[in-house]
Each structure stands twice: as C-alpha cells, then as structure tokens.
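User: Is it possible to get a 3D structure for a protein together with its bound compound? The compound here is flavin-adenine dinucleotide. I've pasted both below.
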Amino acid sequence: MILVAGGGLAGAAAACDLAQQGRPVTLFERERVARHKICGEFISIEARRHLASLGLDLDALGAVAIERVRVARGSSLIEAALPFTGSSLTRRRLDAALLSHAAASGAGIRTGCLVRRTVTESGATGLELDGGEGVRGEGVLLATGKHDLRGMRRSPPGRSSRSQLCFKSYFALLQASRTALEGHVELMLFRDGYAGLQMVEGGIANLCLVTTSDRFAHAGGDWRGLLQSLTAESAHLRHRLQGATDRLDRPLSIARVPYGFLHRGGEEAPCDLYRLGDQMAVIPSFTGDGMSIALHTAKQAARAVLTGEAAAAYHERMHRALRPQMRIASGLSALGRSTGGQVALLLGARLWPGLIQRLAIATRVPDLPVLP
Ligand SMILES: Cc1cc2nc3c(=O)[nH]c(=O)nc-3n(C[C@H](O)[C@H](O)[C@H](O)COP(=O)(O)OP(=O)(O)OC[C@H]3O[C@@H](n4cnc5c(N)ncnc54)[C@H](O)[C@@H]3O)c2cc1C
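Assistant: Yes, that's possible. Here is the predicted structure of the complex:
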C-alpha cells in the first residue's frame, strides 16, 4: 500500500494516478470536506493538461477561460495576450472534484484524518495519525502543502518572504467591472507587493494579494484598512472594487510562505519518502504556476514509486528540472516588489510588447518526460 499525506492537488493527483495504474494507495487528508484555500486560482495550460490526463474536465466543472493579462501600477496600464489560454476555478471545487475522482479511480481516501508525523522503522516509512494509529506502507508521498509535518520541516523562508503576508477573498463586482474583467487576469503592482484579480465560476471575482506585515500594520492591521490603503494607491483596483461586495466574512490569510523553497534532498532522509507539490517547491505566486508544479511533481513522484526510483534520485531530478524556473520567478518576484523594478517592468513592456509573453513562458515548468 502506498501512503499519501495530504489531499490537496498534489496528493489527490498522485493518488489518482497510482490508483489508475492499479496500485493500492490510501490518502489521508485532515479536512473533512474541501475548503477555500489561499490561491489566485489561475490554472495554467500545463496544469490543465495534467488534470485532463487524469480524466478531469475543467470545463465541465465550470472553469472560466483566461486569455489576456493586464498589468496596472498607479495610473499606468498595459495589456497583452497570454501565450496560452488559462482557466480559473475555485480551489474548493477543484480539490473536491480531484479527490472524488481519485476515489472513483480506486484510491482509498480518508478525510478528517490528520497525519501527525512520519515514522521510519527497519528502513520502511509509515505514518502516525492523530490518535496514535500507525499505518505502514511501501512508500510515502508527502503532499501536505504549506504545512510541515513534525520532523520534516522545509528550510525556513528567506528574509523577504518572512515579512510577507498573503490574503484572498471573493467579491461580487458591479456588472461593468465583471464585463471588463471577463477573460482577463489582472495583476496590480503596488508598494511592497501585488494583487491578482480574475473571475472564477459563479460570476464572482477572486482577489488574492501579497503584501508586507509592515504595510498591513500601517493600514491598521485589518482587512478593511488594507483594502482602503491599496485602493487609495491603485486607481485600477479602486475602479474594479467600486460598489463590490465581499463574499467571505473574512479573508483567508497566510504568513511566512517560503517562496523560492526548492527541496534539495539529503542522504539522511528516508529513501522511500517522496516530496511533492509545495513540499517540493514553492514558486512565487504571481507566476500562476504552483498548481502546475504540484501536478507535475505528483506525476513524477507516482512514477518514481512505481519504478522503485530512490527518493534521493527523484528529489535530485526534480531539483534540477525546477531550478531554472524557480530562479527566474524568484528574481522577477524581487523585481516586482520594488518600486524601481515595477517601473522598469512596465517601461520594458511598453517598449517591447512581447516582454510579458516572454516572461510568462520563462516561468513555466515544461512537461518533463516521466521515467519509463
Ligand atoms: C497567495 C498565493 C497565490 C497563489 N496563486 C496561485 C495561482 O493563481 N495559480 C497557481 O497555479 N498556484 C498558485 N499558488 C500556489 C498553489 O496554491 C500551491 O502551489 C498549490 O496549492 C500546492 O498544492 P499542494 O497539493 O502541494 O498543497 P495544498 O493545496 O496546500 O494541499 C495540501 C493539503 O494537505 C492537507 N494537510 C496539511 N497538513 C496535513 C496533515 N498533517 N495531515 C493530513 N493532511 C494535511 C491540507 O489540508 C491540504 O488539503 C498560490 C499560492 C499562494 C500562497
């Protein structure tokens, strides 16, 4: 039995894949039902392809097509076609659909089941569940996303990530804003951060943003104050949110996301424990590529377990494959958070209209061949 800790996109995709290959697999997810998650919910073409290869049809789930991008800063605005058609769908709907699909494919799914830690005995790794139950398997896939298991901590975030805060909420926009936003993802740059806005299914818009704890504190330390401060700075955001109503009682938030983390592996780690999704790599959010990496590493980890590839070799392979995009994305993220970098980015995009497309392509993780 292969064990999967965590039932977000990475864990559910790996469980689904393994079950479809006829391997016994059980997934443990701490939540009873899928909930909203901090995510811009932009689904890249690569992520869409991965999901389609597992048999999940995003259009049937109500995904919205995204074909163009706008970048706004102050009163400046540029627009470009994306180099591919993206999609957008709430994580609540997507994660629930993928978990159900994994179950229908034959995976054992235990929801409401918190994994406490991994336990390695006589060279084989298993899981200890909340309540003390132990489960033993032939390989563990670690897919707990942003949450680390005891003893399996990722390296701490760098200084700039340590001070970052992420927020997400949904808004019902006025019709004029909805019409203007249709088919677009909008990236708004502001002092110390950026926000993404796009429609999801059901006619509501997802606003997801990254800022600093300093700015949040200066805005009064609450969501309303932060929104006021951002709309005062960004004419575009102000315009879009005019007359809009917040659809969540309070926004989702998260601190200390280890942006730029890329697992390197180490000889001390168990040879049958494979990291995937955010446990393998955390790419800066603005790329809209985190889900693609989650699905990509899920596919590769499933193959590694199936073929008996040692975890260290798998981690090294993933590290090599993801490093170029992680470097570019981390560099761009630093640029995009500084005033000079933002001005240079917009100026560059004005002078060279293909720049945005080139950057979008440069931060994508190509579909790697899997081991035979
Ligand atoms: C602000 C922000 C915006 C983003 N925007 C985008 C975007 O627009 N497009 C994009 O592609 N990516 C985006 N991402 C990245 C994307 O959300 C993640 O990369 C992706 O969710 C990773 O999937 P995962 O399966 O590894 O983790 P998750 O989706 O976080 O899933 C992990 C699962 O493990 C479960 N779990 C955790 N601990 C335990 C435990 N101990 N026991 C059992 N279960 C456990 C959790 O409940 C969860 O369901 C964004 C990220 C951030 C922070």
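Residues 2-157+258-362 form a domain with the FAD/NAD(P)-binding domain fold (CATH 3.50.50.60). Residues 311-337 form the longest helix (27 residues).
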